[in-house]
Amino acid sequence: MADRTPRLYNTLTRTTEAVEPREEGHLRFYSCGPTVYNYAHIGNFRSFLTADLILRTARAIGWETTYVSNITDVGHLTQDDLVDPSGEDRMAQALEREGERFANIYDLARYYSDALLRDWHALNLRDPDVRPRATEHVTDQLEAVIKLVDSGHAYVTDKGVYFSVETAPDYGKLSGNREAEQLQATERDIVEDEGKRDPRDFALWKLDENHLMKWHSPWGWGYPGWHIECSVMGMRYLGDQFDLHAGGEDLIFPHHECEVAQNEALAGHEVIPYWVHTRFLQVEGEKMSKSKGNFYTVRDLIAPDPDDEHVPDAIRQQGGVDPLALRYALLSGQYRKPFNFTLKTLRDSARAVKRYRDVQARLDEALQSTSETAAATGLAESLRESYEEALDAMCDDLNTPGSLAAALKGVKAIEQADSLSAADARTATEWLHDINNLLGIVEPQHAATERTGGSDGDDDFAEQVESLIRERADARSAGDYDRADAIRDELDEMGVEVKDNPDGTTWERKGL
Ligand SMILES: [Zn+2]
Prior knowledge:
This protein has about 500 residues and is an alpha/beta fold. The chain folds into 3 domains: about 5-280, Rossmann fold, CATH 3.40.50; about 285-440, Isoleucyl-tRNA Synthetase, Domain 1 (Orthogonal Bundle); about 450-510, no CATH class. It contains 15 helices and 18 strands. The protein has helices at about 40-60, 90-100, 105-120, 140-150, 225-240, 250-265, 300, 315, 325-330, 345-370, 380-395, 400-415, 420-440, 455-475, 480-495, and strands at about 5-10, 15-20, 25-30, 65-70, 75-80, 85-90, 155, 160-165, 200-205, 215, 220-225, 245-250, 275-280, 280-285, 285, 340, 495-500, 505-510. It is globular. Residues about 445-455 have low confidence and may be disordered. It binds zinc ion (ZN). Zinc ion binds near residues 32, 230 and 255.
């Protein structure tokens, strides 16, 4: 494999740069995870997907990786576009909305983080090495705040502890917001705390003895601000000098700007040289919003409520789309370009994913065939070229549309081969495996039991499918192939595709 260095657009320097890890061949990075007060939507997932692609690309060129992505379960307020976020706590607001379903706020956080992980796995996102939760690192955050106060970077009022922006001369360097009015609360004339020395200062700790989630601090009961958690958990697991930080474009300011200021005040030097941000997506040409009815969570699309009329009929009728088709659709726009998510993209993606499945089935058959078959001319060479091109595209600022197109050339080469020898089938299977490692669009990495959706109806469906799969396995081991085939047909009619792999059987719903 030719030597490659991935290039990424760095928000900090405003240029596309070669990523050079501090430790050669080992990329350490952090990606902001979700706030678990609701189901995550497809725009959130587009940004988690960018981190997943950075991971896969780094591994494909032979690098080691250490990847941390957090779960925010405290401190994220509704008005997070303000420097000093005000409004309600998102978690507390959610509990008020859904109170009867949950015993307490921790129960709600657990419920939505479990849902998040199911969606994460359904979309074939690799797990981070560490997935820290803010509530499990409050002591670390408190220590950091104390350190900032002691070193003169923060001060205490009777409402909380604030970071003093005056002590961070580079404040504004990430977002490019340099003017005082860009750096303070966007709602003019609202001063939440008279004790604040500078309107640009942001909260590190909020004092509130009545808050649902509260911890004891030297200043009284309260809870940490949202920005400090990512600084603290990033440095805790990746050290005070690591390589890269990713997140959605909405996080550049104030969240990441504040992180930079905190990091550098805590460490005394630059902590993270590369910052990568994913643009928001639009749905059918419009900003995604609940009022427009074009707001989709992942489960709206992969396991919809049959009665939820805001989900298009075509998706509801078949009980949701194949999660890999959804992943494919999200990959069809580069992370940094405006991306218009449409039903048509989803349909085209389902078709592309099916082509992969079909060639996989053909390869499985060719691998088992004992008859002598002539080798396909030039197949190995076409596949090698396809993979190299797909990887080059990923190294070019995660050019996913280019990478998908290059990979499809390989699919086409297999489709067009008149015959496949066993050696061809082995080469092509290896190619498919490499493409899957790079893009995650061929094979679900999680077994069927982990892939069930959230609703009860979905669980029942999964149970029924798995019971049939067990029955089929029993029939096969008893040599009753007629029965096994009949069960396979039954599953087929249920819209389920069964795949036999060396390490077991997996299944999934067929595409659109
Ligand atoms: Zn964050």
